[in-house]
Design goal:
Elements: E1 10-14, H1 19-30, E2 34-39, H2 49-54, H3 60-65, E3 71-75, H4 81-95, E4 100-103, E5 109-111, E6 128-129, H5 139-166, E7 170-175, H6 190-208, E8 213-220, H7 246-257, E9 268-271
Parallel strand pairs: 1-2, 1-4, 2-3, 4-7, 7-8, 8-9
Antiparallel strand pairs: 5-6
Helix pairs in contact: 1-7, 4-5, 5-6
Length: 277
């Protein structure tokens, strides 16, 4: 049986309704933490067949509750700072505290699948990903991608820090990407936004370290999710010869949100099976 290291703790996961965020929520719930999920669509897992097949209940919130903890969810736009602060305050009020934040909301997406409508009225389950160049990115694309990655991360961190300080310390995990480390991928402006998150993580860690708050980042590489699809054909590019799984990333989040990482802060852990050289 998994040791419930996080009993009595409250963890906030943004972008937690599906994919990697769902994996982080379930992992921390399994460790005993009460869970709050903020997502722009709490039923986002229904948009992708791969995600629907993973669900064991109607929502991730219900899945977490089945693990014997309290869970709640909120739908809102984290790019608005005032809205984010009010939501985080409500979570702290309902669940009594906030000890952990996993800032997972974001992505290399310009328009999400559930924002598009196919001609017959059904959702078009294909995301529109970023295609901008460093020398030429459409303004609308640039603004959207920077907002959903950098602003959501910063707004969440700024909102949770006062609550975590009240508990005498805690853990914050931001989510970058190998695209934010290796500029050769041509995935602009997503890579630029994820590089900014690494810098912000290091800066925040220096500020709140004296308050016993650890701030670290993860940088996933080629990971199998519903949104990104099957990329197993790229296994030959990876030292471990396989694409990563949600569980591969959730294990590192467990490390960064428990006492195992008490003397680690301001760092970025790459989770890519040896893809970057």
């Amino acid at each position: 049986m998994t040791e419930r290291k996080l009993d009595g703790k409250v963890a906030l996961i943004t972008g937690g309704a599906r994919g990697l965020g769902r994996g982080y929520a379930l992992r921390l719930a399994g460790l005993g933490a009460d869970i709050a999920i903020i997502d722009r669509n709490l039923k986002a897992a229904n948009v992708y067949e791969f995600e629907r097949q993973l669900l064991s209940a109607d929502t991730v919130i219900a899945e977490c509750e089945a693990l014997g903890i309290r869970a709640m969810g909120m739908e809102l736009d984290l790019t608005d700072r005032d809205t984010t602060e009010k939501a985080v305050g409500e979570i702290a009020s309902q669940l009594g505290r906030i000890d952990i934040a996993v800032c997972n909301a974001g992505g290399g997406t310009f328009v999400f699948a559930d924002e598009r409508d196919a001609p017959d009225g059904a959702n078009d389950t294909q995301d529109l990903v970023t295609t901008g160049l460093p020398s030429d990115t459409p303004e609308e694309m640039l603004t959207r991608v920077l907002d959903i990655n950098v602003k959501t991360c910063m707004n969440t961190c700024m909102a949770v820090v006062p609550h975590i300080k009240k508990q005498g310390g805690g853990k914050i995990v931001t989510v970058s990407s190998t695209a934010g480390i290796d500029a050769r991928g041509g995935y602009h402006p997503y890579g630029t936004s994820k590089a900014a998150i690494i810098h912000y993580t290091r800066a925040l860690a220096q500020e709140v370290g004296p308050d016993n708050i650890n701030v670290n980042s993860i940088a996933p590489g080629i990971i199998r999710t519903g949104r990104l699809g099957d990329r197993s054909e790229r296994a030959k590019e990876i030292a471990l010869r396989r694409e990563g799984t949600i569980e591969d990333c959730a294990k590192v989040v467990e490390f960064l949100t428990t006492d195992l990482s008490d003397y680690v802060t301001g760092r970025t852990i790459i989770i890519d099976g040896g893809y970057l050289r």
